[in-house]
Specification:
- The protein is of the alpha/beta class.
- The chain is built from 8 helices and 6 strands, in the order E-E-H-E-H-E-H-H-H-E-H-E-H-H.
- Strands 2-1-3-4-5-6 form a 6-stranded parallel β-sheet, with helices on both faces.
- It is globular, with a radius of gyration of 15 Å.
Length: 209
């Protein structure tokens, strides 16, 4: 049986996957990461994921947003059949998460994320926003300080969200084309939190891995 390992985005607990999990094929491990611990970064997140996988043999590594920094480390250490990225960061080997914003051109976009509901939760209904807010937690900057590792030889699927205001679609398409040219891509008309606004469509994309 396949196992889906869900790596959350920045400052998110496992609860924000709650609408998605019932739609997924196989077993699901929604990671509960120590996001607020400044001593824990991407390597520690990956260690926890590998420990959670244990001896399971058919693993799909799913990552959202900031989770894209951790996904390649996990997939390199478990029997991964695929990596599925949901509007996620795509690091180059040797590039830190801090450098990613400038290197990709995101800094030049001038995205104002001060209104979190407008930027992150557009298209999400009030109940979904409440679910997301309940799962929100502190996020240390430690994961951004780690140098990116090479992507393992594992098939990658990338889900674009055409209404994403944090990682705009044209920006994200360019990043993926430059950094993961062999990725299988799909898109849905969702914002940055598609697991809350379009769980069935997100699940369908993951289940095809």
């Amino acid at each position: 049986m396949r196992t889906n390992v869900l790596i959350p985005g920045g400052g998110a607990g496992p609860g924000y996957w709650s609408r998605l999990i019932p739609q997924l094929d196989g077993e699901v491990i929604a990671l509960d990461l120590p996001t607020g611990d400044p001593s824990a970064g991407v390597p520690e997140y990956a260690d926890l994921a590998v420990e959670a996988v244990g001896d399971r043999k058919d693993v799909v590594v799913v990552a959202h947003s900031l989770g894209g920094l951790t996904a390649p480390l996990v997939a390199a250490r478990v029997p991964a059949r695929a990596i599925v990225l949901i509007t996620a960061m795509v690091p180059k080997p040797g590039e830190t998460g801090v450098e990613w914003w400038e290197a990709t051109g995101h800094n030049a976009l001038g995205v104002d994320s001060s209104d979190e509901n407008a930027v992150f939760y557009n298209g999400v209904d009030p109940e979904g926003i409440a679910i997301g807010n309940a799962a929100t937690r502190d996020q240390s900057f430690t994961p951004f300080e780690v140098t990116g590792r090479p992507w393992p030889d594992v098939p990658v699927r990338f889900l674009f969200c055409t209404e994403d205001r944090f990682f705009p679609i044209d920006f994200m398409r360019r990043v993926v084309a430059e950094r993961l040219p062999n990725a299988v891509t799909g898109e849905i008309p969702a914002g940055h939190m598609p697991m809350l606004s379009h769980p069935e469509e997100v699940a369908s994309f993951i289940n095809q891995a």
